[in-house]
Structure formats: structure tokens, C-alpha cells
């Protein structure tokens, strides 16, 4: 049983005290921790033994957690990521905002404007806080392409990150610039980690990321005081550890060589694989096929449209034309894993040792004891026996002619 | 040296980044400047892409009005390629964009606009029993119970008592312009939370047909979701029943919560029907959610010119021109020229101060938003424009709906051009669209029953079938008003792309004749707009929010000059 959302967590109590005040028995409390463990484990990555240990750890951590201050900046972006957070169904954003965290600055949701908003930002930024960022940072024209409260996006980000205990970049824009950074990148847009260089940045990639990924990451931070384990691109493994292709409900048709050749053809009506109409699932690390969107309702491939690869860097440059078949993938049949790993020119970001993100105080201590590595071994996706090397990301500046690559059979 | 100006930046609870600068005289606003302070450059990025990909790129203009940019883009490309779409796909598109509008309007009212009218701290003083009686007097909504209201009160109360106010930090609580009794405030706060749960549910319609929300998938030539009643991975009876349930819940919430809440709250703020009167020219290309390839249907499109709210002038896109007099761009023929979208150009040329800055309105140029004008006039677009145009056409369902609301509140039709009028029309329109959704769904069921399950036309999918060069336009009525996408295709690629977006019409700055854009006009046009306490500009937020600003949409970029492709391969 989850605690009721109608009784907020106050400033001076620990999360466990809060739950006890809610009338939770120890058994219910452990059940809650187990549920959190399941959510954060992505369901697939942990054995039942791991889950128990994980739940126990969560319970221990909750004894010391306090309701943290969160500053949530929206820079050069479309608000889609925050909208996605509002779609999260289990731990909802309002639940977080009114009970678990104190969201002291966010342009979309906060009550005041102007001076009072800026005062709230200044106050929250001065103390320890979790910094969440949507949107990219335009670097051209001395920052005039995105100005908030008279301050450039870059200036705001630097100020807000100074006392931040952790930085979470939500969405493809905050990750690397997304649509703004697509060729020819008119505004010189970059991601958060290009500006904030003195601490690790967690990247929740995707355009946008699934809502539950956002809330689970924030909750993970609140409970543990550091971020979940991530791949080399800073993406949490619980969400980005596996390719969509590996868990796709149409996968059996791929293996059997049964493909949709044209939208709404006979094969589309049989639910066959979308690879030949341009699906980027084989090159895309994302939780869509496992978690699905909007509380497990569906996801693009399930609903008949090819995956656009939106969790991969520079997908508007490198995954387009969207309806072109992924190059270099041998289909169908055996050796699938091998061939998908050999896709040229596409980022198949592999999981590597995580970048641990801790609160400012724990960073130093942990670095001394663990040499910069997280305290628990980073859980490897079960299908990986060794970690593949990262591939050089080449941006596709001159776009291929859609006519030449157009494929219907 | 200009006098010290009141600056409100950021304007929060909107999409994007907006700054308002003001001067006041005796507690009334005398001058106003609307400054859009973000620029992204999306149309330039579109050049050289496959036109079938354009929807996915333009969709990223906005994650709030997600879907409507995609549909306008798909329509523009289909217009260019003369590409017809199957009936079932049309109905599915209507459902996807329609539910988007319903959700968008409700989110706007409760989560972006309500805190302008509702004092959260006053809700703590309310008597939950009395609140339940108040709620029962205006609605049959089953969750309006005393116990529910008590829970909500407790939740908000504990949150504030703990000293961490979260999103309510530094709000204008206790401002004398708040009028609602504590019970009405509590009812609204409770529905604020319920609306969050509700939107999460009903938007799944987009997920079923488009795979995800925000940013559901569309397809040039139809929709990608195949219909097969005998397959598990297609639209089948299970998905149809899910949708049926969502549509029922969507309509019920709109009719039993949103509408009665809005009418109740409006009753306390009737003076805002005379505040925020904006540009007297209003334009629409159809009803909410309408979209078309090429020319808008004559029965829906129209313009009300210069306050003649009974006379609809036919819409003619050739009368549209964009000006850059107050915007940071340059035209080859100078700052006073206006350009039609087909000849449009955007060369960003920033001439403002280097951030951090204190003031923008010193300069002639002060915004990233261009100034679109219709026949030389600033134009309001949005729900009030749509309903007023439909009313003037004597569209009976609209006349009945609007007349009833006006009668209940004791207002006149002309007062729909006001802060309260815009907010009221948004709600009335939501009632209308929620009804349409069920009709479209019935149409889809009927089509399936007739065996008409085609969702995609493969006819023009292959670029080999396309003309060497083509141009097309897609019109749509987005939640915030008239939207148009203009595409030119050369040798199978996009050579030029342009969008004219609702919030560009509304948020524009001054034009070559010095005429203010609609936001500016609403604040400073009449000289009677109140601003009691410049440090707590609650009244300004009411008026600006009544337009439902979407500034990421408003500010974009197209480029007519750089349209030559480096590499041209024949089709």
C-alpha cells in the first residue's frame, strides 16, 4: 500500500517518520519499499533476491531522508518533458511536488511571476538542492536566444548549479540539444553537461522521456541521496539498459522474417515487424517496450508506427529519414544480437561503469572509499557478457536522399 | 531616457518564456510591451529533410499543443502532394487532436490560470461541509464530498504549515483582488488535483492511436495504426472500448466539473468582462480542432473586422503579412516591409542588450516574436475568436451554448473580447469539442462496421510519384488559435518551411504603424486595466493567461534565402 497522497511530508521529519505518521505498519512499509525497488529495477533487471536486498536498502535510506528542495529550470525547449512528468501514474508529479519534494522554482507550475519568482529561485539556489533541467542552452549571440528574468539560460544554469547537490537533465534538449541542436544548429544549442562541468549530470534522454522514468529518478535521488547507476552517456540503467528491439512485442515476427512492407498492408494488420518501414528500435536503448507509455497503455511500435530512436543522441540528424530502413542490419534469422551491435554510424550506447552522483558531501567520501565508483556494483544488463566499446558518434550533416533509400520491399 | 518600467519576467504558468514591461498611471496600465525572449530556429532545421519527416520535427515546436503542429504539417505536405487520406484515418486524426484540445483547455484552466483567481491559503479556512453543499448546488459530480474536501485541505495545509511551500512559494496570497469565498477556493483546489488525475487518463487516447503522449505519432497519407478486429496488435474491440470509456470520462469531467466551476468563479469576477479588451479584429479558419489541406472551408473560416462582431468577412490568406518592426530580424527591403508567408524570410539579427539586462523596451526592437497582421490589422485568435466567428455565422449549436452562458452571467456578446470572455470561451468550446469527440468516435465505429478500415493511402508514399517541385499549406485550429504551416518541396526534400502560430498572432509586438499586438492592446489599449500593486502583478497575469500563451510556438524561424540544397538527387 502506498501512503496516501493527502498528507505531505513536512520539513523536519524523515521519510520513515512521515510514513509512520501516515499509519503504515512495518509490513506495509516494507511492501512499499519493495514496490519502489521493483519500479527502480525496471522489473527485468533484478532477481527476486536482489529485489529483497534492494527493498531493505530503500527502507534504511528512508530513515535519514529529508524533504529536499528542487529547482526545476525550463530553458530552450517545448515543455513536453514536464507534460510527460505530469503523465506519470504511480508516484505522480503532484504527489511528489506537494508531499515528497519542495518544488520551489518551476516556471510552468509555480504561483508567482516576475520578482517573486526570481526571489524564490535565488533563495532555493543558495542552499543545497536538486537541480532539474529541461531544455538546451543556446550559446550564440551571448545567450540572447533564451533569456529568463533578464538572465541568459547559461547564466541561470550556472547560478542554479553552484549549490546543487545533483543535476538531472531531463529530455533530449537538456541531454545534448535535441531539435535545437539539429543541423545546422542555428542557435548553438548544447546540453546541460556542456555547461555544468564540475559535477556529473544524469541524462534522462528521450523526446520526451516516459513520465515514470522522470518521477522514479527523482524519487530514487530522494531516497538514496545519489542518482541511479547510469551508462556512459549518463542514462540510468533501470530505464536505458536495454534496446527496444530486445523486448519488442513484434520481435518474434522479426526473427521469423515477417515484415510490414507498407503501412496498413496485410502484414501491418497482422502485427508484423516494422523494421522495413524504418523502425529504429534495434538501435535504440529505451524502456518503451517494457514500461510502455502513459501508464503502460501502449508505445509507438505497438501502435503501428516505427520507433524514431528519440532516446539516442542527435536522432533528428542520425535517425532521419525516419521511414528509411536502418542500414547494415542483416535480417532475419540468427545472429541478431551480433548484427545489431554492428550497426554503423548509429549510436548504440553501451552500458559501462556508472557515473555516481552523490550529494556534495558524499561525493568526496565515496570517491575516497570507492574511487569514484558507486558503492554497489553497477548491475549489468543480463544479456551483456562483456561491455562493448562505445562508438564514435558521427553526425549525419548531409542528409541522405529519401528517394534513394526509400524501400518498400 | 525613458522612465523606470515595471518588469514582469518570467511570466510563469505559461509555455515558453515571456516578459512583460509596463508603465502605469494612477494604478492603471498606460503602456505595455510584450517581449518573447526565446528563439529556437526550427524551420531552418527542416530544410533538406524528407517532407514525410516534417511532422515529427515541427511537433517539437511544442509539447503542450503536441499533435496540432504535427497535423498541420501533415496537411501541408498532403496539400503539396495532392495526397488524399482514407476516411477512418481522418476520424482517428480528429479524435487525436480533439482529445488534445479538451485536455489542453482543462490543464490551462486549472493548472495555469486558476491560481490567478483562486487563493490557495484561503481554502484552508473553508468548512468542508459547506464546500460540499456549495459544490452540490452547482454539480452532480460524485467526488464533491466533504471527506474529499477535508483530505485536500489537510494535504495543502500540512504542506504549507511545514514551511516548505513548494509551487505555492511567494504566491500573491491574500491579495485584495482575490474574491472567492474560502469554500469556492477549496472546491477549486480540490479540482486542481482531480484534473491532474483526469488528464492522465483521457490522454491515453493519443497513446492508443499514436503510441505515446506527449508527441504522438502521425503519418503523411493516413495514420500508422492499422485496424483489424481479429488481431492483438492492432486497433480492435479492446482498444475501441478503452477509447469509448475515455471519451465518456472526458465529457463528464468537462460538463460536471470544468463548466460549473468556471461559471461559479466567473460570477465573482464579472468586472473582468470589461477588462483586457484587446484588438477588435478576430479570426478563425474553423471550429476548434479543425484542420485542412489547402483552402479552409468557406463555411467555417472568417474574420470579424474592427469590432463589427455581426459581420463575417471571408478569410483570404493573401491578406496575411508578417512584420519585423519590433522584432530582432532583418528583411532585405527594410524594417517597415510586410511579407506574405510564401515570401517570408527570417534573418535573426539581435540588437538588444547583452544579458543580463534590466530593460528591453527602450529599443524599437524588443521581442523574438514577429508581428503577423491581417489586412494590416493586429488579430486575436483563439477560443473567443472561434466562437465569435461561429456566432456571427449563426451556427446554431454555438449560438445556443454561448447565449446560455452570457445570459447566466448577465453579459453581452461584445464582452467576449475581454479577459473573462477569453477564459469563458475556452470552457464553452471544451464542452463543444467533448461532444464532437463522441460523434467522431461513432463515425469510426460505423466505418469499421461497414468494413471501411483503411487507415493509409499508399498512393503517393513513394517520392518517385511526387512532382519535382510543389508547395502546400495546412491550416488547423489549435487550442490557442489559428495555425498554418507552409511547405515548399524541391526534388523530394523540403526547400522552405514556415509556420504562423496562434501565439505569434497574439503575442506580437508593435507593427510598422505602431499598432500594438493583442497582449499589449489588452493591457494598455483601454487605459482602464488595473494594476494595484506592481510588486504583485496579479491582474496582469489574469489578462495574459486569458490568452493561454505558448511562446515556444510563437517564436521560430524560417529562412527563404538558404533554400538551395547542396546535393540534389533526382526523383
Residue fraction in strands of chain B: 5-15%
Q: Order the strands across the largest sheet of chain B as they lie in space.
A: 5-13-14-15
Arithmetic mean of pLDDT of chain B:
94
Total beta strand runs of chain B: 15
Brief descriptors of the model:
A: 409 residues; alpha/beta; Rossmann fold; Cytochrome-c3 Hydrogenase, Chain A, domain 2; five-stranded parallel beta sheet; 19 helices; 9 strands; disordered N terminus; B: 571 residues; alpha+beta; three-stranded antiparallel beta sheet
Give your account of this protein's structure:
The complex is a heterodimer of chains A (409) and B (571). Chain A is an alpha/beta fold and 409 residues long. Chain A has 3 domains: 1-66, no CATH class; 68-240 and 353-378, NADH:ubiquinone oxidoreductase-like, 20kDa subunit (Rossmann fold); 242-348 and 391-409, Cytochrome-c3 Hydrogenase, Chain A, domain 2 (Irregular). Chain A is built from 19 helices and 9 strands. Chain A has helices at residues 15-21, 26-40, 48-62, 80-86, 93-100, 114-126, 153-161, 172-176, 178-181, 192-195, 211-224, 237-240, 251-255, 288-291, 293-296, 315-318, 336-341, 360-370, 402-405; strands spanning 69-74, 102-106, 129-134, 137-138, 147-148, 151-152, 164-170, 189-190, 201-204. In chain A, the strands form 3 sheets. A 5-stranded parallel sheet of chain A has the order 2-1-3-7-9, sandwiched between helices. Chain A is globular, with a radius of gyration of 22 Å. Chain A starts with 14 loop residues before the first helix and ends with a helix. The radius of gyration of chain B is 24 Å and the shape is globular. Chain B has a domain at 85-161 and 180-276. Chain B has 17 helices and 15 strands. By secondary structure, chain B is α+β, with helices and mostly antiparallel strands. Chain B has helices at 42-46, 54-59, 68-81, 87-113, 120-123, 128-138, 146-161, 182-202, 204-210, 237-268, 383-392, 396-409, 419-449, 502-507, 518-524, 538-546, 551-554, and strands spanning 6-8, 18-25, 28-36, 282-284, 291-293, 302-304, 312-313, 320-323, 329-330, 338-339, 347-348, 371-374, 469-478, 481-490, 493-500. A 4-stranded antiparallel sheet of chain B has the order 5-13-14-15. In chain B, 64% of the residues are buried. The interface between A and B is large, with 115 and 117 residues.
Amino acid at each position: 500500500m502506498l501512503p496516501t497522497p493527502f498528507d505531505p511530508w513536512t520539513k523536519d521529519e524523515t521519510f520513515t517518520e512521515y510514513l509512520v505518521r501516515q499509519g503504515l505498519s512495518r509490513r506495509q512499509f516494507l511492501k512499499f519499499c519493495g514496490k519502489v525497488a521493483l519500479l527502480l529495477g525496471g522489473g527485468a533487471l533484478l532477481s527476486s533476491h536482489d529485489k529483497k536486498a534492494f527493498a531493505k536498502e530503500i527502507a534504511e535510506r528512508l530513515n535519514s531522508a529529508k524533504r529536499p528542495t528542487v529547482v526545476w529550470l525550463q530553458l530552450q525547449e517545448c515543455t513536453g518533458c514536464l507534460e510527460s512528468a505530469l503523465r506519470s501514474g504511480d508516484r505522480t508529479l503532484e504527489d511528489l511536488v506537494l508531499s515528497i519534494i519542495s518544488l520551489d522554482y518551476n516556471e510552468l507550475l509555480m504561483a508567482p511571476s516576475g520578482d517573486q519568482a526570481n526571489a524564490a529561485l535565488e533563495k532555493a539556489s543558495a542552499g543545497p538542492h536538486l537541480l532539474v533541467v529541461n531544455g538546451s542552452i543556446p550559446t550564440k549571440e551571448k545567450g540572447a536566444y533564451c533569456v529568463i528574468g533578464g538572465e541568459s539560460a547559461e547564466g541561470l544554469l550556472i547560478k542554479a548549479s553552484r549549490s546543487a547537490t545533483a543535476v538531472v537533465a531531463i529530455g533530449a534538449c537538456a541531454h545534448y540539444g535535441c531539435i535545437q541542436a539539429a543541423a545546422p544548429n542555428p542557435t548553438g544549442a548544447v546540453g546541460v553537461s556542456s555547461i555544468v562541468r564540475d559535477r556529473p549530470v544524469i541524462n534522462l534522454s528521450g523526446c520526451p522521456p516516459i513520465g515514470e522514468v522522470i518521477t522514479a529518478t527523482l524519487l530514487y535521488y530522494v531516497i538514496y541521496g545519489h542518482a541511479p547507476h547510469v551508462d556512459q552517456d549518463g542514462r540510468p540503467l533501470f530505464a536505458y539498459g536495454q534496446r527496444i528491439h530486445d523486448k519488442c512485442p513484434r520481435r518474434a515476427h522479426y526473427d521469423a522474417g515477417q515484415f510490414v512492407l507498407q503501412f496498413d498492408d496485410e502484414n501491418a494488420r497482422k502485427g508484423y515487424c516494422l523494421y522495413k518501414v524504418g523502425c529504429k528500435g534495434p538501435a535504440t536503448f529505451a524502456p518503451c517496450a517494457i514500461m510502455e507509455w502513459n501508464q503502460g497503455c501502449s508505445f509507438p511500435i505497438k501502435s503501428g508506427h516505427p520507433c524514431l530512436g528519440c532516446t539516442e543522441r542527435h536522432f533528428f540528424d542520425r535517425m532521419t529519414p525516419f521511414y528509411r530502413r536502418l542500414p547494415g542490419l542483416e535480417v532475419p534469422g540468427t545472429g541478431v544480437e551480433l548484427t545489431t551491435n554492428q550497426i554503423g554510424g548509429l549510436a548504440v550506447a553501451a552500458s559501462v561503469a556508472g557515473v555516481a552522483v552523490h550529494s556534495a558531501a558524499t561525493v568526496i567520501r565515496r570517491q575516497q572509499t570507492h574511487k569514484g565508483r558507486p558503492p554497489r556494483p553497477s548491475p549489468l544488463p543480463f544479456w551483456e557478457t562483456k561491455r562493448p566499446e562505445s562508438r564514435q558518434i558521427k553526425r549525419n550533416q548531409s542528409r541522405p536522399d529519401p528517394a534513394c533509400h526509400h524501400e518498400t520491399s | 531616457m525613458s522612465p523606470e518600467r515595471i518588469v514582469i519576467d518570467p511570466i510563469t504558468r505559461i509555455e515558453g518564456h515571456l516578459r512583460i514591461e509596463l508603465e502605469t498611471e494612477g494604478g492603471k496600465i498606460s503602456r505595455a510591451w510584450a517581449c518573447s525572449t526565446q528563439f529556437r530556429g526550427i524551420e531552418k532545421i527542416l530544410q533538406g529533410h524528407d517532407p514525410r519527416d516534417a511532422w515529427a520535427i515541427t511537433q517539437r515546436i511544442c509539447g503542450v499543443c503536441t499533435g496540432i503542429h504535427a497535423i498541420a504539417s501533415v496537411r501541408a505536405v498532403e496539400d503539396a502532394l495532392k495526397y488524399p487520406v482514407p476516411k477512418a484515418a481522418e476520424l482517428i486524426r480528429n479524435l487525436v487532436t480533439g482529445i488534445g484540445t479538451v485536455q489542453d483547455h482543462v490543464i490551462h484552466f486549472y493548472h495555469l490560470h486558476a491560481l490567478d483567481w483562486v487563493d490557495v491559503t484561503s481554502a484552508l479556512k473553508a468548512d468542508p461541509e459547506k464546500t460540499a453543499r456549495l459544490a452540490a448546488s452547482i454539480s452532480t459530480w460524485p467526488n464533491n464530498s466533504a471527506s474529499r474536501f477535508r483530505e485536500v485541505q489537510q494535504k495543502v495545509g500540512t504542506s504549507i504549515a511545514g514551511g516548505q511551500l513548494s509551487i505555492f512559494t511567494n504566491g500573491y496570497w491574500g491579495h485584495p483582488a482575490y474574491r472567492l469565498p474560502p469554500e469556492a477556493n477549496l472546491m477549486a483546489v480540490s479540482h486542481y488535483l482531480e484534473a491532474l488525475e483526469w488528464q492522465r487518463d483521457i490522454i491515453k487516447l493519443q497513446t492508443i492511436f499514436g503510441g505515446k503522449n506527449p508527441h504522438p505519432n502521425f503519418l503523411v497519407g493516413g495514420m500508422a495504426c492499422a485496424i483489424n478486429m481479429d488481431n492483438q496488435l492492432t486497433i480492435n474491440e479492446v482498444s475501441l472500448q478503452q477509447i469509448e470509456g475515455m471519451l465518456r470520462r472526458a465529457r463528464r469531467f468537462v460538463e460536471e466539473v470544468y463548466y460549473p466551476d468556471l461559471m461559479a468563479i466567473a460570477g465573482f469576477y464579472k468586472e473582468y468582462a470589461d477588462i483586457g479588451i484587446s484588438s477588435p479584429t478576430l479570426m478563425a479558419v474553423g471550429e476548434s480542432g479543425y484542420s485542412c489541406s489547402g483552402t479552409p472551408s468557406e463555411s467555417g473560416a472568417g474574420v470579424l473586422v474592427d469590432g463589427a462582431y455581426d459581420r463575417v468577412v471571408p478569410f483570404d490568406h493573401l491578406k496575411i503579412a508578417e512584420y519585423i518592426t519590433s522584432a530582432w530580424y532583418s528583411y532585405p527591403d527594410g524594417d517597415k516591409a510586410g511579407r506574405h508567408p510564401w515570401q517570408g524570410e527570417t534573418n535573426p539579427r539581435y540588437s538588444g542588450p547583452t544579458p543580463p539586462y534590466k530593460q528591453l523596451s527602450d529599443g524599437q526592437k524588443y521581442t523574438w516574436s514577429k508581428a503577423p497582421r491581417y489586412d494590416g490589422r493586429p488579430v486575436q485568435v483563439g477560443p473567443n475568436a472561434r466562437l465569435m466567428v461561429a456566432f456571427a455565422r449563426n451556427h446554431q449549436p454555438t449560438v445556443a451554448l454561448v447565449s446560455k452562458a452570457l445570459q447566466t452571467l448577465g453579459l453581452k456578446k461584445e464582452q467576449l473580447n475581454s479577459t473573462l470572455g477569453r477564459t469563458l470561451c475556452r470552457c464553452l468550446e471544451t464542452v463543444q469539442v467533448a461532444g464532437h469527440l463522441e460523434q467522431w468516435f461513432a463515425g469510426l465505429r460505423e466505418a469499421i462496421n461497414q468494413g471501411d478500415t483503411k487507415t493509409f493511402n499508399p498512393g503517393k508514399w513513394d517520392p518517385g510519384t511526387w512532382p519535382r517541385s510543389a508547395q502546400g499549406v495546412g491550416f488547423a485550429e489549435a487550442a490557442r488559435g489559428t495555425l498554418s504551416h507552409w511547405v515548399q518541396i524541391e526534388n523530394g526534400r523540403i526547400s522552405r518551411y514556415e509556420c504562423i502560430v496562434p501565439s505569434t498572432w497574439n503575442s506580437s509586438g508593435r507593427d510598422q504603424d505602431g499598432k500594438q499586438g493583442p497582449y499589449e492592446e489588452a493591457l494598455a489599449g483601454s487605459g482602464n486595466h488595473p494594476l494595484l500593486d506592481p510588486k504583485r502583478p496579479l491582474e496582469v497575469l489574469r489578462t495574459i493567461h486569458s490568452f493561454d500563451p505558448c511562446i515556444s510556438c510563437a517564436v521560430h524561424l524560417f529562412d527563404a534565402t538558404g533554400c538551395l540544397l547542396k546535393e540534389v538527387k533526382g526523383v
